[in-house]
Write a structure and sequence with these properties.
0% strand, 71% helix
Length: 435
């Protein structure tokens, strides 16, 4: 059935250079890799990166994976600097438009296990192509929405379809790159994801202000059409047999570690993604234009990109726990600055710190999540994503009413306080996993 927790060899994709190196996710009793030179092994106290370089992905394959994640993040974050403008042009208050964000995140999260099961059964690349085709239709429908209810439904559908891209690309890396060096290509993907976030907020703010918010939704739809065709060139990686339809999800749900990581992911989504949505509206409430709000929000992507490059160099030199704590400190400081002031410089610093915190903390937890259920990797990564985005949707929705009354100081102070249990839970859990 292929449903046990016994790790299976990770075979690089057909045609992938360097297939002579066998990737493995085998773990000892404490959860540390059996390889004594692995950076996470207790026998390697200095956490030196003594493993050989990853056989890696072909450059063309990595570019396609990065592009799929880029467009997914572009679509997910482009609405943030346009919320007030959309509400004004549709003749509705902010609270009537916010469900377009909450619905997007909720459907994005709820579809994670669906796409994960599909990926384990149909293949990672096939799922990406199918989902991107649907996402293109939903994005174009968003651009043509005549009123708020139609926009909310279209954005929810876009979230449901774009939900597959990032999870499938992360799973593809998990299938083809050894665990010892996996966080490096994952950091490359994180850089592309952050670029999508940064470009989305800048382009959305400028286009919405000078032209209209409608082309902003059409753009990712057109990119998704191009990727649906281009991904035909990406080979499917070898994977263990999926067994029965729900066998992968049984593997995941029987893992106590998987449940713990999902709980951490839900809190992370609530703390960072849920409250991040309100950085641009907080600035606009001070009289800033959508263009300026978008530019400031884009600094989140800039901070994430810069930090992702740092993380790539620090993997093997810093322990995962140290990376998590560094991320938590940045997030706490960022929200603390926003609670103290909603000026342009303060929120610019907040965006940079939150982006840096995301890259340090999330890439470390994400790498951990890819190793927990090797025989059902796509489903495991999908359940991680489900928890992350359900948490963000819940926090974003609960914060809508205070935001409507411009109670941003309390919102950001709450987020700053919540970074403490998030950081502790992630760090303690990761430390115990290392043994």
């Amino acid at each position: 059935m292929g449903t046990t927790d016994t790790p299976a060899p990770n075979t690089p994709a057909p045609g992938t250079p360097g297939t002579g190196t066998r990737a493995t996710d085998a773990t000892g009793p404490a959860g540390a890799p059996d390889n004594p030179d692995h950076p996470d092994n207790p026998g390697n106290p200095d956490n030196r990166d003594t493993a050989h370089p990853a056989p890696g992905l072909p450059a063309a394959a990595l570019r396609l994976l990065r592009a799929a994640g880029f467009v997914s993040n572009f679509d997910r974050f482009c609405i943030t600097p346009m919320l007030l403008l959309i509400g004004t042009q549709l003749g509705v208050p902010l609270s009537a438009v916010m469900p377009a964000v909450g619905g997007y995140f909720l459907c994005y999260g709820l579809m994670q296990p669906v796409w994960g099961l599909a990926g384990d059964r149909l293949g990672r690349v096939r799922v990406m192509r199918l989902s991107l085709a649907g996402a293109a239709v939903a994005s174009l429908a968003s651009a043509l929405a005549p009123d708020a209810p139609v926009l909310i439904v279209a954005r929810a559908a876009a979230g449901a379809f774009f939900a597959a891209s990032i999870g499938a690309s992360l799973t593809y890396v998990g299938d083809t790159v050894p665990a010892a060096v996996r966080q490096r290509p994952l950091s490359e993907l994180m850089t592309a994801f952050a670029l999508g976030t940064a470009v989305a907020t800048v382009v959305a703010g400028a286009l919405a202000h000078y032209v209209s918010w409608r082309p902003v939704f059409a753009l990712p739809g057109l990119i998704a059409v191009c990727l649906t065709v281009a991904l035909r060139r990406l080979p499917e990686p070898a994977r263990p047999p999926a067994g029965s339809l729900f066998a992968p999800i049984r593997v995941v749900l029987r893992s106590g570690r998987q449940w713990y990581v999902m709980a951490v992911a839900m809190l992370e989504g609530a703390v960072l993604l849920g409250f991040l949505t309100y950085v641009a509206p907080a600035l606009e409430s001070q009289g800033a234009s959508a263009t300026l709000a978008g530019a400031v929000s884009a600094l989140y992507g800039v901070g994430s990109m810069a930090a992702a490059r740092m993380v790539k160099r620090l993997v093997g030199r810093w322990t995962p726990v140290r990376l998590i704590v560094a991320g938590g400190v940045q997030m706490g400081l960022g929200f603390g600055v926003a609670a103290g002031s909603r000026s342009v410089p303060a929120l610019a610093l907040t965006a940079l710190l939150l982006g840096g915190g995301w890259s340090f903390m999330h890439s470390t937890i994400q790498s951990w999540a890819t190793a927990l259920s090797p025989t059902a990797r796509a489903t495991g990564v999908a359940m991680f994503g489900l928890a992350l985005y359900v948490g963000s949707a819940l926090a974003g929705t609960l914060a809508a009413a205070p935001a409507e009354h411009h109670a941003y100081q309390g919102l950001f102070l709450t987020a700053a306080v919540l970074t403490v249990p998030l950081t502790l839970a992630a760090a303690v859990g990761r430390a115990r996993y290392r043994g």
